[in-house]
Amino acid sequence: xxxxxxxxxxxxxxxxxxxxxxxxxxxxxxxxxxxxxxxxxxxxxxxxxxxxxxxxxxxxxxxxxxxxxxxxxxxxxxxxxxxxxxxxxxxxxxxxxxxxxxxxxxxxxxxxxxxxxxxxxxxxxxxxxxxxxxxxxxxxxxxxxxxxxxxxxxxxxxxxxxxxxxxxxxxxxxxxxxxxxxxxxxxxxxxxxxxxxxxxxxxxxxxxxxxxxxxxxxxxxxxxxxxxxxxxxxxxxxxxxxxxxxxxxxxxxxxxxxxxxxxxxxxxxxxxxx
Length: 274
Prior knowledge:
The protein has 274 residues and is of the alpha/beta class. It has 8 helices and 8 strands; from the N terminus they run αβββαβααβαβαβαβα. The protein has one domain: 3-Layer(aba) Sandwich (Rossmann fold), CATH 3.40.50.1820.
C-alpha cells in the first residue's frame, strides 16, 4: 500500500497541489488581438510530450473552438493515446472567447456565417473570425512553434461545427481536416445548405457526427440529426471535391453529451496509428 501511495504521489505532484490547483502539463495561455475588430482572444496551447526532445520534428496542430470547454477535454482524451504511440502527437490550440464578452455572445457572433434578424445577440462575423484565425492565430503558432503547416485540424461543435462547415465550403484550404460535431445547420433557416462549395486543392478529411437523441422527440429544440444528414449529403454530392467524409450517429447521445465522443473518435480517425 505504501508503494502504491508513493506512485500516486509521484504522478500527481507535478500537476496539482492543494495550494496551486490543477494545471495541464506543457500548456500556456497567450492573448492575441484581432487587428480588424480590436478584440482580444485568449489562446490555450499545449505541446506534445516529445516536443522538447525532438528538436527536428514538426508537429500537426489541432485547433479547437469553444476553448473553455474543449481544450481540457482534448488534452485529457488524447494524453494516453498520444503518450503511448496509439495516436500521432500534435500541438493542441484552443481559441477562446473574446475578453470582456460572455461566452454565448462571443460564440454566436464569431461562429455564425450570416446575419439573422430574429436573434437578439449579434450574428454573422464568421468571415472576420476566420480571417483572424488565418492571419493572426496561424501566424503566431507557426512563428513560435515547430509545426507542419500542411497538417491543420479544425474542431468545432454546435455553432462551432457550423463555423467549420462555413470554412470548409468557402476557404477549404485553411485546414487539412475537419471535425464537425452536431453542427447547427438550422441556423438562419438552414442557410449553410445553400452555400456554394469551393473545391480544396488537396485531399481533405471531414469527420461529421451527431448524437442519436438530438431530435425534438427527445427534447431538443432543433432536429440536429436531420441537419447533419443534410450537410453530409451536400458534401457527398459534390463531384470530385477532394473531400473524404466520414459520418457517424452516436448512439444514446444528446446535444450536451455527444461532443466528447465526436472529439476522440474524430481524432482517432485522423491521427490514430494502426
